[in-house]
Amino acid sequence: MGHARTLSISLTGLEGTLVEVEADVSIGLPAFSLVGLPDSSTLQARERVRAAAARSGVRLASRRITVNLTPAWRPKRGSGFDLAIAMAVVDAQGDLLHHVPSDTVLLGELGLDGRLRPIPGVLPALLAARSLGITRAIVPEENLPEARLVDGLEIDGASDLTSVLHRYGADVPPSPPREPVAPMPLEPVLRMDSGHATDFADVIGQAQARRAAEVAAAGAHHLLLTGPPGAGKTMIASRIPGILPRLDDADSLAVSAIHSLDGRFDARAGLLRAPPFENPHHTASTAAVVGGGAGLALPGAISRAHAGVLFLDEAPEFPSRVLEALREPLETGDITLHRARGVTRYPARFQLVLAANPCPCGMAYGKGDRCRCTPLQRRRYLARLSGPVLDRIDMRVEVRPVDVHRVDAEPAEPSAVIAARVAAARQRQLTRFEGRAWTTNAHLPGPLLRKEFSPDPSERRLLDHAVAQGRLTLRGHDRVLRLAWTLADLAGLQRPTAEHIGLALTLREGEPR
Predict the structure, then answer these.
(1) Is domain 200-443 in CATH 3.40.440.10, yes or no?
(2) Residue range 183-198: average pLDDT?
(3) Looking at the domain 3-167, which fold is it?
(4) Smaller CB count within 10 Å for the chain: N or C?
């Protein structure tokens, strides 16, 4: 009887901490204590480990068993510590011929029959392990496709506890034949690189709204579409991810890690390379959209939409606290969630696309003679989108009913053609911002925008006049300039002109009535 240790990984958001699992088996009344701030699912490992070890040919000693998860002050959550706990206890009671190496992490949940079951969050856990100097990992076989996406680690898969015990010299019988482990249930994730993708060629008419969507995609700008029901707002918004460039390596790893942590990542198709698209229903809670939960916060829709599109259909129907919670991540590109057991940070650099009706009944367009809403109802409805939220939206475009007589005269471009122009504009931004911390016009810092990247005073006269009149805030001024840069990039020009600034101002303020 003695002491042994193994290693595992504890995740707080996407940040991982190396956890040393210490096991001590000593003389005393039979007991199994698990300490180190485990949550309820981690604490239940005692029963899973005891049953799994017995089924694998190793009975835990009738002694006092104490397992400590170090650092003991950091909360631990989940069942991914089961394998590390089991191997530490078996080693401490002297049933292993070889110790588990100090450069190896063990991840996996144990079934009562000894099988090793898959867990969520393997990708961020192994990314953290690699950054901490770990060189080897043992994971459940079902997690192997995901684990092998991490370069620089020697990854081994195990089907059950018996196979891991054999690896380190335990004298146990071979694994008995067992039924296959049921795969971990995965929620569907929209992958634009597989199956049928929506296309802008399906959109009938709406040239102005399609152009606004192209500008939004080219510069990573936020967009508000207003118009009556059936005008095509949702159709246009859902096609924006199809014209965005594919994710680079850094964004692909971040997006895949978020979906892995959320239990929605199918690694058999590789890293997520298509920009994600999230469209929560307007009944969604603040925690569902922004992130949250008891203890340590889980990612919400805004984090799952990182490097992609967050679409809020019927935006005024969302609770005001949900819309107001978007203000910080729209500015900073991440979200920090404070909970009782810790602080969690998730990336949340998304493009926000809002769709709204002009009034509760949706008929307040044109002359508005079909609308039956009172002026007070209209004001209350539109006031649900507060000024601070609207000030962070780059473009506000009205989507009017389609004129069926002009449909044939305006052939719709397919997404592939639009995506080529967007890719060319993004490449110009990459070249212009080479060596900087940002890659798109939407993320260009304001102080630098007003100095190094500011147009000539004669060209921005119209914009300065709008600020002087109080029609634009300083934030709005900067967003118009960023829009002008994107319009210049789409036109293939080196700098924006007065015409681009005027068009950007129109897209920002909407067409005059």
Answers:
(1) no
(2) 52
(3) Ribosomal Protein S5; domain 2 (3.30.230)
(4) C
